[in-house]
Amino acid sequence: MSDAPDTFGGARLIFAHKHPTSARLRFVRFEHGMCGFTPFPAAASLCPDEEIPESPVVTLPSVHLAEAERRLGLPSGGLKIEPEFRQCVDVGDACVEVHLAMFTAMDPPFETIAGAGGRFVAITEARGCAQIELELLRKAYEAVLGG
Fold first, then answer.
1. Residue 138 and residue 127: Cα distance in Å, rounded?
2. Is the peptide bond before 37 cis (omega within 30 degrees of 0)?
3. CATH architecture type of domain 12-145
4. Are 16 and 28 in contact, with CB atoms under 8 Å apart?
5. Which residues are within 8 A (CB) of 66 and not within 5 positions of it... i.e. 6 or more apart?
6. Using an 8 Å Cβ cutoff, are 44 and 135 in contact?
7. What pTM, to 2 d.p., does this model score?
8. Residue 94 confidence (pLDDT)
9. How confident is the model at residue 9 (pLDDT cuts 50, 70, 90)?
10. Integer distance in angstroms from the first to the last C-alpha of the chain?
11. DSSP letters along the chain, please?
């Protein structure tokens, strides 16, 4: 997946599913890590909230959803942006926005995600991921379930 052309302008998406009845939260883990569709460099670090740059040109995060749905093999409307989550990662020469894309289906699309090279995991199964991804997952968990 990471060798696909970058159509996200550097932005990354974390994919998650929260079951509407049980509130069980699962994240998609790809072979390269937790963020679609390109891993962060090893030296990447989370920007403090007060340092998230405001750009005169804003790309709405929903712009990325159609491409993500296509790449994952999901139907249109299969993802929605979680408005309570917006992070920025310093990758050295740029600040990269990270958004949380939530699956809209009642149940996680296990087979579809497996076909796209991913699998659903609980946050505790993300051990071994890069530190920056663990920090982003913690913030995503807090945004969805409260913290």
1. 12
2. yes
3. Alpha-Beta Complex (3.90)
4. yes
5. 76
6. no
7. 0.89
8. 85
9. low
10. 32
11. -TTS---STT-EEEEEEE-TTT--EEEEEETTBSEESSPPPTT-EEPPGGG-PPPSS---TTHHHHHHHHHHTPPTTSEEEEEEEEEEEE-SS-EEEEEEEEE-SSS--HHHHHHTTEEEE-GGGGTTS-HHHHHHHHHHHHHHH--
Q: Two tokens at 48?
A: 């403090």
pLDDT digits (tens, 9 = 90+) for 32-70: 999 999 999 999 999 987 555 565 555 677 788 999 999
**Which residue from 95, 132, 147 is spatially nearest to 14, judged by alpha carbons?**
132
Q: For 71-114, how does the pLDDT look when each residue is reduced to its tens digit (9 = 90+)?
A: 999 999 999 999 999 999 999 888 899 999 999 999 999 999 99
Instruction: Return the domain boundaries, the chain.
Output: 12-145
- Strands 95-103 and 12-18, bridge-based pairing: parallel
Exposed / middle / buried, residue 127 (Cβ in 10 Å: 0-12, 13-18, 19+): exposed
Q: Which residues of 42-65 are buried (b: 16+ CB within 10 A; e: fewer)?
A: eebebeeeeeeeeeeeeeebeebb
- What tokens were used for 10? 């550097």
Residue 60: the pLDDT is 72
